[in-house]
Amino acid sequence: MNTTIKIFSTILSFMFLVSCGNKERKKSNTIKTVPVYQVKLKDTIVTNRFVADVHAKNNVEIHVRIPGLLDKVYVSEGQKVKKGQLLFKISDAELQIQLLKAQAVYKSAMADQRIAAVELEQAQTLFDKKVIADKELELSKAKYEAASAKVAHAVAEKKAINQQINFTNIRAPFDGTVDRIPFKEGSLVENGSLLTTVSQLDDVYAYFSIPENIYFQMMTDKTLNKQGGDIKLILPNGIVYNQKGELKTADGEINRQTGSIQYKAKFHNPNGFIKHGTSGKLIISEPKEDVVLIPQKAVFSIQDKQFVFLVNKEGLIKMTNITIGSTLDDVYILNKGLKNNDLIVQEGTQSLRDGDKINIKEMKM
Hints:
By secondary structure, the protein is α+β, with helices and mostly antiparallel strands. The chain has helices at residues 2-29, 93-128, 134-167, 212-220, and strands at 32-38, 41-63, 68-73, 80-81, 86-90, 169-171, 176-178, 188-189, 194-211, 230-234, 246-249, 260-268, 279-295, 300-302, 305-311, 317-327, 331-336, 343-345, 358-364. It has three domains: 32-45 and 290-364, conserved putative lor/sdh protein from methanococcus maripaludis s2 fold, CATH 2.40.420.20; 47-57 and 204-286, Efflux pump adaptor protein, beta barrel domain (Elongation Factor Tu (Ef-tu), domain 3, Beta Barrel), CATH 2.40.30; 92-167, Helix Hairpins (Orthogonal Bundle), CATH 1.10.287. The chain is built from four helices and 19 strands. A hairpin with a 3-residue loop joins strand 16 and strand 17. Helix 2 (93-128) runs antiparallel to helix 3. The longest helix has 36 residues, at 93-128.
């Protein structure tokens, strides 16, 4: 009898232990195992890429201002020229004839003015002696003024023709390189015809547009205010240009139609390697020291605010608000919200709730 009671008690104890074990096992199965990330302060480089159009420092079209025959072409396509160097000569034969006529008219007007001056002097003397009336003196004065006006008109005609003759000598406005020349010597050119383009290529400017949201982000990071950033130009063949860029402001306002603001970067071009009209890509890089970097997949949004799950020593998670400063390829740079050595849930946040307990699968840094 006693033996039977002992056996029964042993069976009951075993069943109780099994039951408790199953409960613990079920409870353990409800705790999710998720990977976590340990925050470390790191150095990184924030990079922004933009499409750029390259312009010469100066790029001026040379147009005809006086129609006529293209008498001389003194330069060739692609030639480097100096400021004031003679590029083209348009025939001024007809203008020279007009100038001779204008000079003759000027001399005649000067002679008439001298005659009128003598007559006025005589009239003044006679008037002083009360020989003639004041009306005759006024008439002499009027003749002198009319003769003087003719002289002034003749002088203006001479200057106008001389200016037109100067327009037939077409010179380089600055040091630069001559572009294509569509007309040959002997061609008849009209007023406004394009003779060539001169480009000043010792410096070039890469113009690019910054979207409004990125502009304010870069202004917040002071990327656009610093001169220490690295600005590179990627040429159409994929090669990085060997000169460092210098950031310059181009526009003073945001374009409402495009939602962007235009900037430009200056590059030295000592050998004229880059030509006006080149396209490329601009890379602006700014080094950052001791910043908080976290994976993008660790972040979730609620009502336009960003959060992560902060993990404590007991494995309990807490929803924590963060402020994102910059965005890289797959990580965020934080302005505030986390500190060095904090643990956060790296992925799987959609299945978790604030206050849940988790098992740490692995620690990634």
